[in-house]
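User: My instructor asked us to take a sequence, write out its structure as tokens, and then describe one feature of it. I'm not sure where to start. Here is the sequence I was given:
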Amino acid sequence: MISIKVDRKVVQFLYYWGEIAIRLFFACIFIWFGILKIFGSAPETSLLDDVMGWIPFLTRHQAILMLGGFEVLIGSLFVFKSTVKTSAALLFILLIIMLFPLFIRTKLLFVKGGFPYLPSLTGQFYFRYLMTLMGVLIIGGNLKK
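Assistant: Let's start with the prediction itself. The structure tokens for your sequence are:
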């Protein structure tokens, strides 16, 4: 009986503080990495340079700058619980943009002859990025109204 009460309190504690912690963590990560992209200091810039080259009417540098600004905006929206769903909606747009190279630039994302099971270094970065975005979408969808 006591363990049920303790267990319930632990779950409540984790639910409350876990949601705040993950929101602030995602906010820090998106703002931090977005700023690094804007100032050209991101270590993955050369990887993104190859992947983001498909966007018409923008140079690769401009596409990376826009991606950085978009990430800073998304991260800023994660700070407040009331704007997490807006952030998730913007992440959905970002996800579509980031998924597009999967279909048109598979040579960059996979080792020659390795599609779909052997990602290149660029592909590994890309899929980790997508996994992060998917996790954020799930978190945004599970927030209480």
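For the description part of your assignment, you could build on this observation: The two ends are 31 Å apart (CA to CA). Try explaining in your own words what that tells you about the chain.
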